[in-house]
Amino acid sequence: MDKQTKAQLENALIRRFFVAPSFEIYGGIAGLFDLGPAGTQIRQNLISAWRNHFVVADDLLEVQCTCLVPEQVLVASGHVAKFADLMVKDVKTGECFRADKIIEDQLQKKIDTEKDSSLKNEMQIAFNQIDGMNETDTYQIMKKFNITSDAGNELSQPFPFNLMFQTSIGPSSQSKAYLRPETAQGIFMNFKRGFEQARQQLPFGIAQIGTAFRNEIAPRNGLLRVREFEQAEIEYFIQNREQKCKHIEDVLDLKVNLFSADQQLSNHQMTEQITIKDALQQKIISHEHLAYFMGKTYQFLTSVGVDPAKIRFRQHLPKQLAHYAKDCWDIDCLLYCGWTEIVGIADRSAYDLQVHSKATGQDLSAFIKYDAPVQKEVYTAKAVMKVLAKEMKQQAQQFKVAIEAASQEDYARIQKEIDETGKFIINGAELSKEMIQLQKAVQSIHGETITPIVIEPSFGIGRIIYTILEHSFYMRENDEQRTVFKFNPLIAPFKMAVISLMVKDELEAVTGQIIKQMRKAGVSCKGDDSGVQIGKKYARFDEIGIPYIATVDYDTLKDETVTLRERDSMKQVRVKITELEQIINKLINGMPFEEVK
Amino acid sequence: MDKQTKAQLENALIRRFFVAPSFEIYGGIAGLFDLGPAGTQIRQNLISAWRNHFVVADDLLEVQCTCLVPEQVLVASGHVAKFADLMVKDVKTGECFRADKIIEDQLQKKIDTEKDSSLKNEMQIAFNQIDGMNETDTYQIMKKFNITSDAGNELSQPFPFNLMFQTSIGPSSQSKAYLRPETAQGIFMNFKRGFEQARQQLPFGIAQIGTAFRNEIAPRNGLLRVREFEQAEIEYFIQNREQKCKHIEDVLDLKVNLFSADQQLSNHQMTEQITIKDALQQKIISHEHLAYFMGKTYQFLTSVGVDPAKIRFRQHLPKQLAHYAKDCWDIDCLLYCGWTEIVGIADRSAYDLQVHSKATGQDLSAFIKYDAPVQKEVYTAKAVMKVLAKEMKQQAQQFKVAIEAASQEDYARIQKEIDETGKFIINGAELSKEMIQLQKAVQSIHGETITPIVIEPSFGIGRIIYTILEHSFYMRENDEQRTVFKFNPLIAPFKMAVISLMVKDELEAVTGQIIKQMRKAGVSCKGDDSGVQIGKKYARFDEIGIPYIATVDYDTLKDETVTLRERDSMKQVRVKITELEQIINKLINGMPFEEVK
C-alpha cells in the first residue's frame, strides 16, 4: 500500500464512520477509538465467524468474565509485579516514550540509510530482538545506536511502567482492583467449573471474547495500539505436550510462512514456506496442539479476508518468552506500517493454574485415569511408636508424622540408608531402623494427578479488523476518487442495498417494500432515496463495501424482478423479488455470484 | 415461582455453569458474576435477536464506544455531580446500605403484616415513591416507619454516594477518568457523525450494546444488581414530540399492562390492560415515538421467552424523573423477588446534546428543512456609525456589534421602544433612534435549527437473561428431580445434541460424523459418549435446555436416518441425516416441530 492509498483509506474510514476518535468533540483521548456503524458490523461479523470457527466447531466452552479484577488475583498471576513496558523520558521536556517503540522507529531509519552491510546486519539483528528486552540490554542498545527523544534530546534510562488501570470496588474504596489487561485470567478462574462441564476429560478448551485495558505509555499508530481493545482468547488445556491432537489432520497440509527464532537470529527478514506437517517433523513447531491452532488461525484469517501472502508466523526468541512460557508464535500481518502482530499463540505451560492454586489453596489439577491400571511397587511406612517414644521423648509424635507423610522418593532413600548403615535420616535427625516399619508392595495405580498445560491462542479483534480494512481497500481502475472495500460477503458490514433506478413514487414504494422485507429477514440492507444519480449511489455503497445492490426499475412493476449487481466484477443479473432473500443468504454463505440465476 | 423451585433453579444455574460468582476460587466479589458456556450462548443469541429486532429492522446506526470516559465528559453530563445513590450507615457497625433498598425491604414486611387497612395503604403509597426520592423525603420515611439497619441499629441520615468507578489515563496519572455508568454518553459523543451518515434527516437512531459499571453500595439480589453489566441502548433522535412515527402501525393493536403514575399514586398495585392505540388516545403515553418503542420492546421480550403475563409498564412518578426527562416508563417483569425493572424507556428531551454542545462549543443541532419555504417578516438592523462614534466614543464599536447581533425578539422590542419613545435600550444603555437603521422585510425561510429530542430505550441484558431463565424453568411432571429450561430454539444456548442409543464403536463413528457436520454448519451441537443410560443423557440435556436430540441406532446404519426428539413434548420423529441440518435450521427459525417430516 502506497502513501497516497493509505491517506485515502484513512479518509474513507473517518468520512464513512467506520471508526472515529473517542470523545472527538472534546478533542479526543490518545489511544481510544469508537467504532461507527460499519466498523461495529464488521466486528460483529468477525466475532460470529470466530465463534463458528473455534467455539462451535471444536465445542469449546465460552465464558464471559468481568473487566474488574481484584488485586490479589493479579498479584498471584504476576501482573502487579511485572505487567509493564519499559518507559524512557526526554530528560529536558519530560515527555514519555515507550522504549522499544522509539528504538524501533529510529533503528529502522538507520537501517534504511546505512551503507555498511555488516553494520546494517548488526542493526537488523538488534531490531529483531528489541521486543521484550530487559532494562539493561535496552539501555545498551540505546547507547550503542545513539537513540534520542523525538525532539533530539537525551533520554533517561529505561524503567518499567505498569500498564494496568487501577480502581477500587465498593463504598469504602479499600478494595484495590484493576481493569483486566487480558481476558485469560478470567478463564483460569473458571477452570474447575469448565473441567466439570467437560466431564473431567483432557483436552478441553475455554474461550472468551471481551474487552481488555492497557494504559499504554504513548499510544500512536492509530487503531493498532489502543488503550481499550477487544480480545478473543482460548485457553486449551492439554495433558502434556506429547498428547495427540484429535483434529491435526485438518491443518497438516497448509503451507505457511514461518519465521523461526533461528532464522531471526541468523539473518534479516527471511521467512520459510513450509507445510505444518514438515514444520512439526522438523521440530520447528514444538508440538501438535500448538501446530493445530497455528493452522486453524491461518484458515480463519484467510477466510475473513486477510491476504494469505501477507501472513507470517514469527517465533518468539528465547529471551522474549515470558519466564513461564515454553514456545510462542506471533501471527504477523504485513500492513502499511510494517509487519504487525495480530494474533499470538503461546504455550503457557502449567504456570497460571499453579500460581492460582498456590494463592487460593484450591485444587486446580486434573486426575488422568489410565486406560488400564498400572502395577507399581509402592512403599508404605509406619512409625514404631514404642521405640520412638522411648528414644525421642516429646518429639516422638512429630517424627511419627514425618515418617508417615514422606514421599516415595524419601522412602527409597531411607530404605537404601537402612540397607547400608542400619540408620536413616529424617527431618535432619538420625533414627534407627527399629523406629520404622517400611514395606514394599505392588499396587494398582489407576491414574495420576497433573496440572494441565495450556495453549493460548490470543486474537486482537481490533487489529484483525484493521488488517481486513487495509487488505480489502482498493480504487476502481481509472478512477482514483472511487474507493472500494472488497469485503467478503460474510464480513461485509451491510449485505445489500436496494434502490430505485429513478426516485419516483411508484418505484420507491416497491423499493421500500423490498427493504422492509429483507430487514425483517435479518439481512442488513441500506436504501438511498436521495436525488443523486444512480452512479453516485453505487459509489456511496462501494465506499462502505456493500457487496450486492438490487435496483428497482419500471420492468420490476411488470415482472417483479430486480437487477442484482455484484460489487467487484460489477456484473449484473436479473432475479425475482421472491427469490431475493434466499439468493442473498446463499451468497453470504459463499455461493459464487456466477451461480445466481 | 415457589421457594423450592427457586432453590432448584439456582442449583441448576450453578451446577450446569450458566453462571458463577466471579473470582470464586478467591472467595468471590459481591456484585460480580461470570457467565458460563450456557449463559454466554444465551447472551449471544439474545443480543443477535435484539440486533435483528431493532438495529437491522429499523436501520439504526450501531456504534461501539469505550468504557473509559474522561472526567470532563461526565462533568458536563451531570454524572460527576449527581450519579449517586443515597447511602445510610449503621451508626454502630459502620455497615453501608443503599437507603431505598433497606427501606423497601423493611416496608414490604410491615405492609405484609399490617392489619390497619388505612395504615397499610399509606405504607404502600410510600413504598411506591421510594425509588428516586431525595435525601430529606427519604429521611422522613425512615423516621416515620422506624427503619433500622439489618442488625436493628440506628441508621445515619442518608447521603449521596457516587456510583462511578474512578481511574486515570496515561503515564502521568493526572487525567482523571471513569468507567462509563451507561453506554448512552458515547452515543451523544457521536451524534454529529451519525447524523451525517443518516444524511442529516430526522428521525434517526444510534444504538450501542456494551458494558457499563456501577459501584453499587451493597449489591445483593444475585444477578439482578451487579457492579458490571451489559446494556443495549438506543438514542432515537426526533424533531419534536408531534413528529409522527413511521412504523407506529406495527404496535398500535398490542394490548399491554400499564401502571401509570396516576394509578400508582391513587391505589396499590393495579395495572390496566389497554392497547397502545388507546393509551395514546387517552394521553397516558405522551407521544408516538415513546409508544412505538414500548410496543417494540413488548414484542421483543415476548419473542425471546419472557412470559407476556408477567410484563408491566410502570410510568415514573413526576418526582422520580431526572430533572431533564419528560416521561419515562420502566418495563418491569414479575420475578421470584417481585416486579423488577429490566428495560427503561425515557424521553430525555434535548438535555444531553445541549450540555455537551455547551461544554465543547460544538454545534450539535440539526437543521430542519421545511417542505416549502415559509415567508416571514424579518428585521434587519445596521448601526449608524457616524452618530454612534460621535456620541459613544470608544464604546461605539461595541454597540455596533450589539446592535447587529441582536435577536429578532430584541429587534421587535427595539422597534416598539422607538415607536413609543424615540429611544431604545441595548446592553443596559439608552440609545437614540438615529443610531440604528431598523428595517422589516419579508424573507423566504427554508428551515430552522433545532436540538433534537431523544427517546432512549435502555435494556439490561443480564436482567433479561435472568428473566428468561426464571420464566423458562420447570420440572417434568411427576419428577421433581428432573429440571428443564423451555428456551425457545432461537435463544437456547445449544441447539441440539447427537448421541448413540448405546455406546458402541460402530454407532459412535456415525454420531461423531453427524456432530462434526452440524458444527461445521455453525449449529452448536453437544455429544455425550459416557457410559450412562440414554434417559440420564436426556436429563442432562434437559437441564441446559437443549431443544432437539438426535439419536443414532442400528437402523441408522441401514437407512441413514436418526430419531429426532423435541424437548418439551418429548415427541419423536425419524429424519434423514442428509436433511438434519436444514430441519434444525428451520426449527431454530420458528418452524413448529409438528411440521418436521
From TrEMBL, chains A, B:
SUPFAM superfamilies noted in UniProt: Class II aaRS ABD-related, Class II aaRS and biotin synthetases
GO cellular component: mitochondrion
CDD domains for the chain: GlyRS-like_core, GlyRS_anticodon
GO biological process: mitochondrial glycyl-tRNA aminoacylation
MF terms in GO: ATP binding; glycine-tRNA ligase activity
EC annotation from Swiss-Prot or TrEMBL: 6.1.1.14
Enzyme's top EC category: ligase
Pfam assignment, any one: HGTP_anticodon
Record-annotated Aminoacyl-transfer RNA synthetases class-II family profile domain positions: 127-489
Transmembrane regions listed in the UniProt entry: none
Classification via InterPro entries: aa-tRNA-synt_IIb, aa-tRNA-synth_II, aa-tRNA-synth_II/BPL/LPL, Anticodon-bd, Anticodon-bd_dom_sf, Gly-tRNA_synthase/POLG2, GlyRS-like_core, tRNA-synt_gly
Keyword Nucleotide-binding: yes
UniProt keyword terms in alphabetical order: Aminoacyl-tRNA synthetase, ATP-binding, Ligase, Nucleotide-binding, Protein biosynthesis
Family from the record: Belongs to the class-II aminoacyl-tRNA synthetase family.
Protein name: glycine--tRNA ligase
Organism: Trepomonas sp. PC1
